[in-house]
Amino acid sequence: MDYWLEERQRLEQELGERITLDALTGPNGLDREPWRDDAGGEAGWLIAQRKKGHRHSADDVLTAWYALQVSPKVSEHLDLGTGIGTVGLLTLWGMGPEARLTCVEAQEISYRLLQSNLDANGLRHRVDCSHGDLRDLVLEKKFPLITGSPPYFPTSAGVVPQDSQKAHARFELRGDVSDYAKAAVKHLAPGGWFVLCFPSPQKQRALDGIAAAGLAVVKLRDVIPRETLPALFTLFACRHRDEVDKPMLVEEPLIVREESGRLTASMAAVRRGFGFSDGIAHGGH
């Protein structure tokens, strides 16, 4: 933990702002590679985030969870527009200690935080990361699993934040969902899966972009943030179009919280799957 505290101090001095350390995974589960705390006990992976920047949330967690649900164990996977690393690292954790991650991120401050999150978690040897635009990505290898969490909104949909990290995470300043699908189809191995999330009210945009790239949605699942509310975003599991011969399966929605605000049993199970024994992620430091 001392190393993490030192890394946070370095980041705060470099960036001139508050950085929080938040639990990305818990210590529980078999075939994991957690770092050890100062007392010699096992701990989970942490993630450094800007206190007032773009922060990871349920869509990242559930995109990784859905990828782990639909894909068999793989030795390596690709994460597009990885940001500070949330989806990619959660999927990596779920794939076990021998798995490797390749990822690409264009936004400078997110890429900088990604470096700290790899180094301080001791994951540098398992991750190949590049600083660049996913639309320009050309890798020699293909991957059995690709994940992505595209920005949700065209610039015409609202006021673009002045904060660069928030702006690029939320608005389509470097491509849209169709560009993620195009990058995915270029790098997806035969029989592989491309898993992503996108806002439920814009579901048709995602379906159109996925189809235009030459992929087909095998199944999708809406996510409802709280009982009585409409779906907020949708999880998509896609394959090469010529590998799909059945109609798209629409699964039952996943509800995150009960009307009282308590996590549903389904969401608590998701959290347990990432190592939190009580099903709840613990706060930052």
UniProtKB/TrEMBL annotation:
The keyword Methyltransferase appears for this protein: yes
Any one of the GO BP annotations: methylation
Domain Methyltransferase small: 75-153
Keywords from the named record: Methyltransferase, S-adenosyl-L-methionine, Transferase
GO molecular function: methyltransferase activity
Protein name as catalogued: Methyltransferase
Native source organism of the sequence: Luteolibacter arcticus
